[in-house]
Known about the structure:
The chain has about 240 residues and is an alpha/beta fold. Helices cover about 40% and strands about 15% of the residues. Strands 7-6-5-4-3-2-1-8 form an eight-stranded parallel beta sheet.
Amino acid sequence: MTDRRTELADNLARVEERISMACAAAGRPREDVTLIVVTKTYPASDVRLLAELGVRHVAENRDQDAAPKAAECADLPLTWHFVGQLQTNKVRSVASYADFVHSVDRARLVTALSAAAVKAGRTLDCLIQVALDAESGEPGQRGERGGVAPGGVMELADALAAAEGVRPAGLMTVAPLVGTYAGRPRAAFERLMEISTGLRAAHPAANMVSAGMSADLDDAVAAGATHVRVGSAVLGVRPRLG
Ligand SMILES: *Cc1c(COP(=O)(O)O)cnc(C)c1O
């Protein structure tokens, strides 16, 4: 059996190769795209190995798992991203370790994150999660897996810009499993880029585009994503849904 460090190094090299090839194909410099490794369901020991292997950005989707892991890894030079659906009662904890929150999808969350960030004396970079499966719905409608309909993005960005302790950093999406974009991740990510263009016209600093996971990171890079969130391609297939 190969040891875990070698396994992670090999997987990282393969993902790096995919990102480089997708960048080259799209005529984008490699440094345009940041790899975020999603470590959910995997132990702090893996996070430590990843840091030793040069990973600088990690993501988690459940505060119960993320908080102790971030505490155990506090000595490492890591930036923590929170990418899961977020309940307001978890916001205070998340604001204590997360640098980026990718899942802002309602005004109530902006208020809660702002209050928690101010209390913690921190500034949180917030991405608005867009539900492309709610495309034809009412503005403010949310998708199956969280996220606000495209028509609700600007209002949330304005709220983030106006609130203390938080700032609008960009957009995030998960390729929809249902609706017009089901099975069409490239089209979904291109739609996200259009929404990003509109957002950046009003909030130029909100230029992050977080899109693409293990299965579709190539499509996301082709469409223009600045951040890809990769879990299983680096750590292995998760034993349970996370
Ligand atoms: C789990 C997760 C990922 C990573 O998914 P993989 O398919 O394992 O690469 C990315 N984004 C979010 C929001 C996730 O929950």
